[in-house]
Amino acid sequence: MNPGSRQTSDGLGRAFLWLAALGMLVGLTLLFQSAQRSSGGLVRSSNDSGRAMVVLQRDRSGHYVAEGQINGQVVNFLVDTGATDVAIPEQTARTLGLQFGPQVAVMTAAGPVRAWRTRLDRVSVGSVSLDNVRATITRAPMEDVLLGMSFLQYFTILQQGDELIIESGGTSG
Fold it and tell me: Is the pTM of this model over 0.70?
């Protein structure tokens, strides 16, 4: 074997090792993100007094996430009391078949973005639901639907330890 081919072989071996290490790093990152997202969510969806309520467990990143429904179709919600409206990513809105109303500019954590106003027939999280909910369809890059104050304002919200309780009062639908 000549010295030039040995250097080429060693270089390819190192390149494959780096690629394998990079692939493993990406795989572990995705695994931890998946585990982090799955550690929160719906704990229970009832109470003793007959009122509709949902108890959410805080996930490892400190957020309250839950599977819910918009107009009978399943979505993932991220509870966001700082969001004025229920905020839906554009692609999710298209998948749900939502109507894109007038365009508006909205302020997000990442700065101003263009969005559309819309109305949702029904929003549900566990046993808590509300009809005719104001929402915004946004181009902001996000995975989950933000469960904002246009929904939450009609419920009692209480945080106790690592749980968030959303309970109906007399004004919700």
Answer: yes
| 173, pLDDT greater than 50 | no
Cα 169 from chain centroid (whole Å): 25
Residues 40-168: name the CATH superfamily. Acid Proteases (2.40.70.10)
Q: Are strands 73-79 and 145-147 parallel, antiparallel or unpaired?
A: parallel
89 forms beta bridges with: 138
Q: Give CA–CA dist 118/85, Å, rounded.
A: 10
The percent helix, strand, coil of the chain (3-state, each to 5) is 25, 45, 30
3-state secondary structure 98-123: CCCCCEEEEEECCEEEEEEEEEEEEE
How would you write 22-52 as a 3-class SS string? HHHHHHHHHHHHHHHHHCCEEEECCCCCCCC
